[in-house]
Amino acid sequence: FLSAGKLLIISYDQLRQHADTLDGVIDLLVCDEGHRLKSSSASTTKRLTALKCKRRVLLTGTPLQNNLDEFWCCLSFVQPTLLPPLATFQRIFKRPIDRAQDA
After folding, report:
1. Under a CB-based contact definition with an 8 Å cutoff, are residues 16 and 49 in contact?
2. Count of other CB atoms within 10 angstroms of residue 25
3. Which residue, 29, 80, 35, is CA-closest to 57?
4. pLDDT digit string, tens, across residues 3-51
5. Virtual torsion, Cα 99, 76, 45, 36, nearest 10 deg
6. pTM over cut 0.70
7. Which of 12, 56, 68, 102 is 20 to 30 Å from 35 at the Cα level?
């Protein structure tokens, strides 16, 4: 499929079921409702992260729904080397922001 240069539009549910058929390198992966990838441990996020992609784009109207961990997950999916590992991100950014909000 991918070698033919075709366009594939697929739902997250269908992707989870058929991700193993998407072999090869994907030039561009565009994910609508990108906030659905807010947990690095979720099966959808794991499947999408495992795909070999040259470029990834997330579309969402709500990048910060609940907390900064979700924001980290979305940014790390799009650009894996942009932010430090989650534990470091939490120590440097999340905890100080949370403390300031509680003050």
Report:
1. no
2. 9
3. 29
4. 666 667 778 888 878 777 777 778 888 889 888 888 888 888 888 888 8
5. 60
6. yes
7. 102
